[in-house]
């Protein structure tokens, strides 16, 4: 419950410390898991002091226990070991210090660690952190490679030497961190985030040269897995431990079996690329030569055709055909004209022979009344009527005699 206080009526330090102690006492005993970072066993002392640290966070708490409690696990527990302790939180009021009073200590076995890692693996897999579609492709030729590894480690030497042997111009941005122990996780996470924040880093390699299951626990930490999953830069896991894969292998965009293998997968081999370029150049040269040869054969075949060898031959042949057709057309037209002329002459002769003018020339005359009508019968005229008589040489008037 909150305690009332004001600037005019503040609480003494001792009272605040006693209140804190009372609140902590009400917490009761709890089971706590952590990693032993400091261990103090003074000869003859009945109390053992140790520091328990959360490997994933920068948080530690002091633990005290009676010697007989620690002696029961002293043969299998030391600095760096992961343990589970049953302890009651205690508040030391004079110095305002929190500690745990342990009544039981149990080492965390490899089987228990693997079981917990398997549960964490399934949980992260359900979130999709290991999905193949999340994997980012590595650049063909990275200009700057971020390397996270132990200081002066064999892993660092293997990556640098093999990468520079394959491609001498490659550059590295190295971050030396703790790769095991309580400081490994925060340092590796910080290094990965720093390299990912740089725009000039093309790929990040996290390398370590193998180790026991306990040594590789930092690379299965949930905080590190989530940090790698959030990276926008491709990440390569190069933890040289074949039997068991840390969770970093599953979330990374590429897994390498060893640091040397990582160098081979991240950096192309200059000799191999030169050979590939030479092969491609030779292939291109063969393709071009085959194309030119095929086109030359096609051109030679085209030039061998009669139309190409004697291009006027076809024109001359067509000229003769046109001349023959023109001559035939002229003969046909002349024949039609002659026949039409003959038919016209005969028709003209018949027309002339049958025309009234021809009849008049033979001495006949045509009598016409004043209205122009020809007289065809005697009853059509009256006595004394004047008619006009047409003959071949002209016309004259005649009078009808009664």
Percent of residues in β-strands: 15-25%
Low-confidence stretches: none
Helix segment count? 12
Mass-distribution shape: elongated
Enzyme class: hydrolase
Function: Bidirectionally degrades single-stranded DNA into large acid-insoluble oligonucleotides, which are then degraded further into small acid-soluble oligonucleotides.
Main location: cytoplasm
InterPro entries: Exonuc_VII_L (IPR003753), Exonuc_VII_lsu_C (IPR020579), OB-fold_nuc-bd_dom (IPR025824)
Structure description:
The chain has 402 residues and is α/β, with parallel strands linked by helices. The chain is built from 12 helices and 13 strands. It has helices at 13-25, 67-71, 110-126, 154-166, 184-197, 222-229, 247-251, 259-266, 270-303, 306-309, 311-354, 356-361; strands at 30-40, 47-54, 59-66, 82-92, 97-107, 144-149, 171-176, 203-208, 235-239, 254-255, 366-368, 386-391, 394-399. A 5-stranded mixed β-barrel has the order 1-2-3-5-4. A 5-stranded parallel β-sheet has the order 7-6-8-9-10, with helices on both faces. α4 packs parallel to α8 and α5 packs parallel to α6. The radius of gyration is 60 Å and the shape is elongated. The protein starts with 12 loop residues before the first helix and ends with a strand. The model has no long low-confidence stretch (mean pLDDT 86). It catalyses: Exonucleolytic cleavage in either 5'- to 3'- or 3'- to 5'-direction to yield nucleoside 5'-phosphates. It is an enzyme of class 3 (hydrolase). Keywords: Cytoplasm, Exonuclease, Hydrolase, Nuclease. Residues 12-105 form the OB-fold nucleic acid binding domain.
């Amino acid at each position: 419950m909150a305690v009332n206080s004001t600037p005019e009526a503040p609480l003494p330090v001792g009272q605040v410390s006693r209140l804190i102690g009372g609140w902590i006492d009400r917490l009761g005993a709890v089971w706590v898991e952590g990693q032993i970072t400091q261990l103090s066993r003074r000869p003859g002392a009945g109390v053992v002091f140790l520091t328990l640290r959360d490997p994933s966070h920068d948080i530690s708490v002091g633990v005290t226990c009676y010697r007989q409690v620690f002696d029961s696990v002293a043969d299998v527990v030391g600095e760096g070991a992961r343990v589970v302790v049953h302890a009651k939180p205690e508040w030391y009021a004079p110095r305002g210090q929190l500690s745990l009073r342990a009544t039981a200590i149990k080492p965390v076995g490899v089987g228990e660690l693997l079981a917990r890692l398997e549960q964490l693996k399934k949980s992260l897999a359900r979130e999709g952190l290991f999905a193949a579609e999340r994997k980012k492709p590595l650049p063909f030729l990275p200009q700057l490679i971020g390397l996270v590894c132990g200081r002066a480690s064999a892993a660092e030497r293997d990556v640098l030497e093999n990468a520079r042997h394959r491609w001498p111009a490659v550059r590295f941005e190295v971050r030396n961190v703790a790769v095991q122990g309580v400081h490994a996780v925060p340092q590796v996470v910080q290094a990965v985030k720093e390299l990912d924040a740089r725009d000039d880093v093309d790929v990040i390699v996290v390398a370590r040269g193998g180790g026991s299951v306990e040594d590789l626990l930092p690379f299965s930490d949930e905080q590190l897995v989530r940090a790698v999953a959030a990276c926008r830069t491709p990440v390569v896991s190069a933890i040289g431990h074949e039997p068991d894969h840390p969770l970093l292998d599953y979330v990374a965009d590429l897994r390498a079996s060893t640091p040397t293998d990582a160098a081979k997968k991240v950096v192309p081999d200059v000799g191999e690329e030169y050979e590939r370029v030479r092969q491609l150049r030779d292939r291109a040269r063969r393709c071009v030569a085959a194309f030119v040869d095929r086109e030359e054969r096609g051109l030679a075949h085209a030039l061998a055709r009669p139309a190409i060898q004697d291009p006027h031959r076809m024109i001359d042949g067509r000229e003769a055909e046109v001349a023959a057709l023109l001559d035939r057309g002229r003969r046909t037209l002349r024949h039609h004209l002659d026949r039409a002329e003959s038919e016209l002459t005969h028709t003209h002769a018949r027309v002339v022979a049958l025309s009234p003018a021809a009849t008049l020339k033979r001495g006949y005359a045509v009598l016409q009344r004043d209205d122009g009508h020809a007289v065809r019968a005697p009853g059509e005229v009256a006595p004394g009527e004047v008619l006009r008589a047409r003959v071949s040489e002209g016309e004259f008037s005649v009078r009808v005699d009664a």
